[in-house]
Amino acid sequence: MSEIIFLMGVLNAIVFFLCGYLSRKFISERKVKSAEQRAKEILEAAQREVEAGKQKVKLEAKERMYKLRAQFERETKERRYELLNLEKRLNQKEINLERKMELWERKEQELQQRSNQLALQERALHQKKKELSELIEEEKERLHQISNLTQEEARNILLTRVQKDIEQEKNLLLKRAEEEIRRNSEQKAKEIISLAMQKCASEYVAEATVSVVNLPNDEMKGRIIGREGRNIRALEMATGIDVIVDDTPGAVVLSGFDAIRREIARITLERLTADGRIHPARIEEMVAKVKQEMEETIYKYGEEAAFEAGVQGLHKEEIKLLGKLRYRSSYGQNVLQHSLEVATLMGA
Q1: Which residue, 214, 225, 203, is CA-closest to 248?
Q2: How do residues 66-87 score in pLDDT, each as one tens digit?
Q3: What is the DSSP letter of 326?
Q4: How does pLDDT run across 277-311, given as a tens digit for each residue?
Q5: Whole-angstrom Cα distance, residue 295 to residue 320?
Q6: Spatial contact of 257 and 246, defined as CB atoms under 8 Å apart
Q7: Secondary structure of residue 348 in the 3-state scheme
């Protein structure tokens, strides 16, 4: 009986030992798994923070790169504009110098030719004077020999004949001098007109290639430029016109040789500043709308010109081309207005 009780105690001890060992093992494994899970979560959080830091650094670097690029483009554009203006001024000065040199050379040639002509005329007059004196002596001697006239009477007759010859020669010289003065005056008038056209050419070119848009205030310039220059680039791309924002108070300059595009840019900019909503999408929308209105306006100008000139049966494309002449100029005069004047004269 005691042996059985001993064996049961031993078995109970073994069972309790196994249960404790297994429970401790289970708890240890659970703690290890929990620690591993927490370590994994910490690593994932750290990786997310690293990725977020990388993304932030990339965005900051990209934004700084955009700012530097916009600043470089703006400075490059300003420098290019200054160089273009300098090149235009130098070309104009070179043209003026060449014209002055040509004018001086032409005047020098004319003076030389006139000096040569005067020398030839002087020699011819001396020769004629000498021949005339010889003829007078011969006539006087001949008349004295063949007639009973006295020497005084013969001298008077010869003087009368010489006076007639001198009058004819004087009239011929006066006529030649008048013709020469007329030619020189025409040449001088042409030179004066060309110089006047040359002085007015630079001002006319500036008026024909530049438009100024007035702004309500200088703060509007920043809105026209936009963030990193997005708005001004969108406007230039949509219209094909250079938008110059400088230190001029309350104004923006539009530069371009195409008068129609420049007019589209001017109307678009005026409407955008009046509306106040200035962003690339709005700019493209407004430019498209103004282009459509400009097509209608050009067609209207063509119809009015055709009606005023009394021309009927023109094709739509011909009317459109006629309306485009409203935005063309030649020698400071509007081409459409000049064409109407010519049509009126031809009709008369």
Answers
A1: 214
A2: 888 888 888 888 888 888 888 8
A3: G
A4: 888 888 899 999 999 999 999 899 888 888 888 88
A5: 8
A6: no
A7: coil
3-state secondary structure 206-246: HHHHEEEEECCCCHHHHHHHCHHHHHHHHHHHHHCCEEECC
pLDDT tens digit sequence for 241-255: 888 888 778 888 888
- Cβ atoms of 338 and 330 within 8 Å: the answer is yes
Collapsing DSSP states into helix, strand and coil, what is residue 313?
coil
Angle between helices 280-309 and 230-239 (to 10 degrees): 30
Two tokens at 88? 């235009």
- Which helix (H) or strand (E) segment holds residue 333: the answer is strand 333-334
Please give the backbone phi and psi of residue 211, each rounded to the nearest 5 degrees, phi first: -125, 145
Residue type, 73: E
Q: What is the DSSP string of 137-186?
A: HHHHHHHHHHS---HHHHHHHHHHHHHHHHHHHHHHHHHHHHHHHHHHHH
The answer for residues whose C-beta is within 8 angstroms of residue 128's C-beta and 6 or more apart is 169
153 φ/ψ sector (left φ>0, alpha ψ -120 to 50, else beta) = alpha
Angle between helices 259-275 and 230-239 (to 10 degrees): 140
Compute the distance between CA of residue 43 and CA of residue 104 in angstroms, rounded to an integer: 89
List the one residue out of 172, 164, 165, 274 whose CA is nearest residue 213: 274
Residue ranges of domains in the chain: 88-208, 215-347
- Closest CA relative to residue 169, chosen from 215, 132, 207, 205: 132
Nearest Cα residue to 347 out of 307, 310, 303, 304: 310
Q: For the whole model, what pTM was predicted?
A: 0.42
Nearest to 92 by CA among 196, 193, 199: 199
Neighbours of 287 (CB within 10 A): 22
Closest CA to 165 of 137, 132, 197: 132
Residue 303 CA, distance from chain mean position: 30
The residue written with tokens 């230039």 in the block is 236
